[in-house]
Amino acid sequence: MQIQRLSIRALTVLIFSLLGMVAIILSILAGNYFRQAALNAQMNSLSRVIEVAAQETVRDLTRHTFDLGMKLSHNPELLAALQNNHKDKLISLLDDSFINGFSGFSKIDLQKIRIYDIRLNFIAQSAEGIRGLEPALAPQLVKQGSSRQGIERLKAIDALWLSAAGPMHSTLVPVGGLHLAGFLEIVVDPVFNLPNIGHITRTPISIYSARGEPLLLAADTHSDDGFLPIAYTLNTSDQRAAFQIVGYENVSRLNRQMNQTQLVTISGFLLLSLSALAAALWMFSRFLFRPLRRMIADMQQMRHGRLDLTIDPRGLREFYLLADSFNAMASQIRRRTEDLEHMLDLDDNAIICFRNDSEAAYFNRSAIKLFGYSEQQLGQLELTDLFAEDIQQLVQHRQAPGKLQCQLHCITRQADQLPCDAVISQMDVNNETAYALIIKPQSPASGSEDKLAQNLVSSLEQNGQRMEVIEQSLHSLLEITRHNPQLLKLLSNAQNDSPHPGSEGSKQLLRQQVVITMQATLACWEHELHKSKLQLAEESRIWPVYIDKSTPTTRTLDKYLQLDTCPNNPRSQRVIDSAEFVLRQLDHQHGHYPQTLLTALQNLRNTLAGMQ
Amino acid sequence: MSCLRPINQLFYKPAHAVLYCILLACALQAANLQAQAINSADGKPMAPPAIDGAMNLTAEQVITLILTTPDLVIIDARKRSEYIKGHIQGAVNLLNSQMDETTLGSYASNKNVALLFYCNGPRCMRSSDAVQKALGWGYRNIFWFRGGWNEWSEKRLPVVID
Lengths: 612, 162
Known about the structure:
The complex is a heterodimer.
Chain A: H1 8-73, H2 76-84, H3 87-100, E1 110-116, E2 122-125, H4 139-146, E3 157-163, E4 166-175, E5 182-188, H5 196-201, E6 205-209, E7 214-216, E8 227-235, E9 241-250, H6 252-303, H7 317-346, E10 350-355, E11 360-363, H8 365-371, H9 375-380, H10 383-386, H11 391-396, E12 404-411, E13 417-429, E14 432-441, H12 449-483, H13 486-496, H14 504-528, H15 533-540, E15 546-548, E16 551-553, H16 555-559, H17 572-586, H18 592-611
Antiparallel strand pairs in A: 1-2, 1-5, 3-4, 4-5, 6-7, 6-9, 8-9, 10-11, 10-14, 12-13, 13-14, 15-16
Helix pairs in contact in A: 1-6, 2-3, 12-18, 14-17, 14-18, 17-18
Chain B: H1 14-37, E1 54-56, H2 59-68, E2 73-76, H3 80-85, E3 91-93, H4 101-107, E4 115-118, H5 126-136, E5 142-145, H6 148-154
Parallel strand pairs in B: 1-5, 2-3, 2-4, 4-5
């Protein structure tokens, strides 16, 4: 894909769409992570609750075993049997709790009661209760009990341990109270008490052995029903796994709440994101796309030849600077074009430009003068109306490419056919072929008598007019010399040289008049209108403005301000146009400078008329 | 007009100064009494850390005392119901509010006999009250187990359950 085919708008929309998609994906991901985090938190919380409940259950269990042990250990008969080493008596006394019960009988699952001497050597155990237990103290209790000394030995100790028949809980209490005579071990099955964990946590629980065998199973706790299983391992006193307790947390409500929260947060996030994107797109459209589109449309119009257009500079700073710079550039081009047109206008040859459609695209003043039509009329005519020859055919059937020299007959407004020498040039204008005709009328033929008479009459009229002009010029010169005595010298020099029309003297006089008029024009412009020479050139569009090292200069105009630099064949019409332009700007004001200018202008005209 | 007044004009009459002093003393006394009654962080009353004339003991020291002092009189100052659920071996139940000189004298006729008082623990005021009473009646060999039943049962020491 070529990069120039991609518009900024499309690219921006693409980027924003990507951002929108990323926002949506992030919202969904964040929602899922949030959900997982909430579930993890719930699991951690319930796991901790199960742990606390398990500890509380074991503590409750030990309270009952301790009470039983304390009651038995203060039994005088038991003490006497222990001191006398009557094992049968001891066994019958220990069995009594199994047979006749005790306070808290329903709270624990009593498995065995065993009695030891003060060195923790086994003496006897109850005949009732579980069978198969080794007649020895649990290793953890041995370790704890043997390491204690003095009063510490009077304190009861507990242990959860693994027997051959499964996990058991033992409480070792001293026999004989503060006067130690031996030890009594109360062995219970903790599985009986573990369901209390569920009562504390208020959740269904399942209990498994360390090997994974189910000891207690909770009913209707499938994960599909919204129950989340959370496992907790209850360890023995030597940190070996005794039970696996699985609590089931009903997370259906949590799921509902999380779904609701997820929906609200995602919707809110998306709404905010899309709103921000929409606002950003609108701002891009308002401040970037629209000015850009407008600028491109204006530029395209200018590209197609509408140089009179200016680009609307409204918009952001960069657009303003761009449009302003472009307008300045277009203005310079316009000025150059106008300068060029003016130069063409000043040319004595008639110039006509036309395209393939035979319509005249440009014509200079000489052309208007030659054909006798007004500017508007000439613009509406076609080449066939202006020339007796078919110009198109001439161009198409020319021998070689380039300039074509030929003779044409121009049809004037009076329907006269004037023979002219013409040069036709082919040009490329905006990728279109155009043609320029440079026409020079041939000298009039002096064949007919009528024409001769007409020429005579016209020359007489012209002579009369010239006399009037000379008279006016003399008056004007007298007036000028009154205000500007140094001109008298110039005039006297001019008289001494006896200038004749077409001679060097008349050219010198013309140059002097041109310089005087141009100086008077500039003086009037600067003093009456308070504007600069550059402004005169720019506003009148008569004089070209050059850019010399980024500084605008009026080189051509400057030449006409001094006699030394004034051209030998000065463009007197430009000077007259400049003077008339300044006088138009003054709008018939009276004063020294305008009056001087009027006088100088008149003198110039008189000089020109005299030369003709 | 300024609101500030010179210090020598604060009291218009000497009687006013005396009255202010009395009121200030009363306020300080009330604050002191309140501080004595409520001296725990949660605002509930607690037994004093120590009582002059009585020796403060821990659970282990109590066992040593019991084992080394045959004529020791152990007074359980708790309620009867609490006593039945479990008490220190050899203790007699004598509620502080029901304890008078005669009753105590029936257990310890000699004022030099060793007396050990305990109740539920630091939050229980019964044993401290009983100790102060015994001190007031002239008993001179008094031991106070401030930790009481809480400390004893937490350390899983032997108890007697009736």
